Each structure stands twice: as structure tokens, then as C-alpha cells.
Sequence to fold (684 residues):
Amino acid sequence: MKKAKKAFFMVLVWLLLLSPLFGNGNSESGATSEKKGKETLTVTMALSEEEWAVMRNQVIPNFEKENNCIVNAVQVEASDVQKKLVAMKQAGKMEIDVVASDVNREAALIDAGLVEDLSAYTDLIPSQTAGKLAQAGVFDGKTYFFPYRPNAEINYYNENKFNQYGITPPKDWDELYQVSKLLKDKEQIGRICLKIKLSGDAIDLVEFIRSAGGDPLVLNDQGTIEAFTYLQKLWPELSPDTLKASFSSSNTFLSTDEVYYCPNWPFAANIIVKDGGKTEIKAYEGFRGPKGFVKTLAGEMLGIAKGSEHKELALKFMSYLMSRDVQATLLKENGWASFRTDTYADAEEWQKPYFDALLKALTVAEPLPRVSNWDKIQQCLNDAGKEILLNGADVKTTLDKYAVQVKALQS
Amino acid sequence: MHNKVHLSRVLFYCGIVLLCFCMVAPLYLLIKVSFSAPQEVNTAHPTLLLHHPTVRHWQQVLTSGNLFKPFWKSLVVATSTMLLAVFLVAPASYVISRASRHLKELYVMVLFFTKMFPVVGIALPISVVFLKWGLLDTNIGLILAHLIGQIPFMAWILVSTFSSIPRDLEEAASLDGCSKMRTLWSVVLPVAAQGIAVSGLYVWLNSWNEFTYALYLSLTTKTLPLQVYYYVQRGGTFQMAAYATILTIPVILVTFVMQKYLRSDYLSGAVKG
Fold:
């Protein structure tokens, strides 16, 4: 028995020692598919489990069949795409062909020379493209990205709770303050949540600045001062969850009635309403600032990695993803907004109010400032926010201090 | 006196129970959420006990195609890293431990010099070299990358372990006619088993949880930590809970198996007189 145990252990050890030498853990690798005589296209996207199921079962197989190829679609978060592309470019081995890039990270990819200039292929962009979405892929007159999946935050609210207190979703800054204060007074805890984590993405901060007529790249202008002054007043009335609100946690906060109001991405409706059964969570486009209604364009656009050996197939795949059928499938099955105006009729009945809100948001949406070091500038915004909102620092003095840093970062 | 002893024993056991509760409660909640219906958790007052169990989230994870390949990859990489590290480091550490004190200190300092650089700083240039060698998505690439950080760490533990073993043991073995290799294999290594087990366990866990190199060197098949990162980033509380529960199982098993080597009396009786 002891000998058998020892033998089993030794076999296991050898198996484990030898498997790294022969195994690459990748049954659909390029080498394997080359053997099958099929071209392999490697595509990176950042999708959820449910979204991948639709992509893998309903979208990709048709393209593979039509083009006798293999699409190796892999999950890579937007923040990691650049790291991988930089490493591959430096190694001289570009293993990625198509990237579905975050709209607000495009500038960094272009500045680092990681994506191809697609200006010669702009006729592939469908004429049904909504508004100025096609322009979001243009930098210095050159087109680097094609539209694919536009996105903008919509504002969710708990209809039952709002009805209980006889209030309606706030339409401007004044109403936002009044509703926040009323709920805080009634429940002794803030129930209005904004996604202002003061770290990472500063989308909501930028929206406040822009809707007061400010410029986040200037930071100490009149509009920005007005925005931070307002936020300093609003801050004590907000839910403490404001500092923790991410896409995922916001869904939990709304689902568990921890907060009654929170901006989030449209796909949250699938998680909260469709899967979670919280039909009382409704959405609308959001509130206006003193200088107008502002939303941030997000989502993903398609580009081709510089050095890709499958450029022709990559362009075909991008065209396929932009087609009406694929866009309609993604809208219906994944709850994605479409950049095509001719797909919204295919939405399911329960989705329509959320898409209505989204379309209103998309009509005004514009990308975050397109500078390559936006991450650092965004950090300045967050740091200024920490001092003003958490420590109660003087707005003007603090913004003057950070404006110098922001200016230096741009020079 | 008897009452005092009794009271201290009661307090001791209460402390143990409290400690166990603190350690087990998060694990319980993790498992509970993984088996809960969404309505049971997505409420202002979730219950402590499971009332409407469902295996739907486990089914989703098990059939997602995101489990077995990453699991096997992580297992192969972590175990191979540990075995290779032991194979390379144990004999080397023994030799270093028998060198003069100054030389020994110098070796340890040099080994630690490589640990002074943050992984995020050196991961890119190292990964670029590995990519040039065609090691993207290969287990061997990841094992080599993990060994860079783990070899100095293991050597640091094992040099101390071997240094604490009395030389008298080796002299006694030599007097009994053992060769140098036989002495190392039959006398020194068994006595050092605890230190080797501890360092091996740490190396296995470090490799199992490693993230940065895995991020650069994996594209198609990821390791488990990358998959957990994916579930954290992409929402799905219930699937995340099911996935995290699965991730903890091998860690518990490995710790349980290695536990028998973690004794404090491993040197007692080694040298008589």
C-alpha cells in the first residue's frame, strides 16, 4: 500500500513536471488552427459572462463559417489592453489582431503607436451611425477606431421609495440637492448615491464640471469652481456608498435598497431588473447642470493592433460586428446600446424605457478629454476632490494648486 | 486555584471559538451566497441561513468553460514552480549554509537584491523577453517567471533551516560510512523536511496567487487569479462567490496535506547526548 502510494505520488510529480514542457493550455492556439488550414484572428474584448455567451454562440460562429477561419476571442480588460500591446510590440510579436478599446483610452493607444490608421477604410462605417459617434474614433484628422458599442451612464432610481416620499427623479442640481436632503432627513442616512469614488475613473466629476461650463483640463476656471462648491454642499447629504460605487457595487446597492438612486451603465438593468427581478428600479437620462445637460461617452470602439498579420480578415470582422444583424442581436440579447439607429425596434418591451433614457444620454454624450496622460490628470481631479469633499478644504485655493499640476502634465 | 484554572480554560476555549468564528464566517458567507437565490441576498436584510438553495450559480461557473483550463494551468504552474524551486534551491541552500558566515550573509544579501525591485517594474521587460522566446500562453513561461521571485524567497528560508541543523549529525553519518550525497539525502533532508515543506507551501501559494506575470504572459488560457479578477471586474456577485469558493478548495487541501510537516519538534532527538 505504501509502495503504491509512493508510486502514485511519483507519477503525479512527473506528470506535473512534464506537462509544462508539452502543454500550453491553449487548445485553440494559432498553431493548432494553422494545422487545420484556417486563419486565426485574435480579438480582445472586455465582456461579462452573459455577454460572452452571446458573442460566442450567436455572433462569432457565423463569421467563422462564412470566412473559413477561427476567431480566438479573449477577455482582456480595457485597462490591460495597452500593457499587453506594449509588451507584444516591444517583443516584435503582435499576437492580437482586433482590439475592442474603451473610447476613453483610445488616445493612449494612438500616442503609443499601438493601433493602425484606418482612414483608408472609413467607407466601411455604416451610414446609419447615430449622431457623431463615428467621430469618436478620429484623432488629428485620422480615423483609428470604428464605432461598435457606444455607452453612457443612465440614472437609476427606486420608484417605490420615490413614490413613498412623494418625490420625482431630480431634473437639475437644485432638485438633486433637495431630494438628497429630504431622504437624508427622513432616513437619517443618505440614500442618493453618485459614482464619485475619488479614485480611478472620474466620469461623474467631469460631468459636474462640464455641466457648470468648466473644463477639467483647466481646473480652476469659474465652472469648475462652481461645480466643486456645489458638490461640497451636496456631499453631506449623499449616501456613504458614493465612495464605493463601482458598476458591480452600485448594482448591489440598488438591489438591496441600500441606496435609492445611482447612475450606472445600461447593462445594470439586465442584472438588477431582468435577472434580479427588481422591477421597481427605473431609469432616466439624468439631471442638468447650470450650463446644460452633459453626459460622458463611453463604451468601446474597434481598432486593429499595429503589426497584426491578419489585417484583411480583421477589417472583415469589424464590418461584420458593425452589421445590422449583429448589432440587433447584441442589443436584444446583451442589452447593449447600438451605434446604429436602425436596430432599436428589435429591443424587448422591458428594455425600451432604459434604452429611451440611454438614447437621450447618447445624444449629448462626449468623450472624456482626449489627452494621453488623462489618467494622471484624472488623479489630480480625484485628489482635489478628496481635499475639498472629504477634508472641507477651500475650493478656489485647492483648485489653483491642482490646476498648476494639470497644466504641467499637459505641457 | 482549581476555579482559576477552570476559568482560564473556559476563557481560552471561548477565545478559540471566537477566533474560529472570525475565520470561518467569511468563508461561510461566501459559500452561502454561492448557493443562494438572488432574492435572498438582494434585500435590505439578508438572512444568515440558507432558505432557498440553488445550484444555478455553480452550474453557470462549471459550464462556463472558465474553470477547468485555468484551474489546471494554475495547478500545473504552482506545483511545478514549487517542485522546481525545491529541486534547485534545497541543495544550493545546503551548500550556502555550510559556507563561512560572511560568505553566507553575502549570498543571502545578493539573493535579496533581486527582490528589491517591484514586480510591476520588472515584469514588462522580463515578459518582453519571454514573448520573444515564444512563451506567451505557455506553462513553462509562467513557471520560469514565477521562479524569478520565488527562488530567493525559498533560499532565504532554507539557508536558515539548514544552518540550524547541527553539523554533528553529518559527522555522525560520516562515521557510520555515509557518503556526502547519502548524508544529504538520508540525514539532512529528512531533518530539514519542515523548513522545505513550509517554504514549498509558501512558494506554491505565491505562485497560485501570482497576478502580474500571468497578466502579461497569458492571453487565451488564464490562471485562476486572472479569472477571479475577471469576475470581480465584470459583476455577477453569485458567480463570483461560486468561483471564489472553488478557488479556496485547493488551498485548503494543500495546507491540510502539508500541515503534518509543520511541527515544532522536528529537531528533538536528532542528536543524543
Q: What stands out?
A: Residues 2-34 of chain B form the longest helix (33 residues).
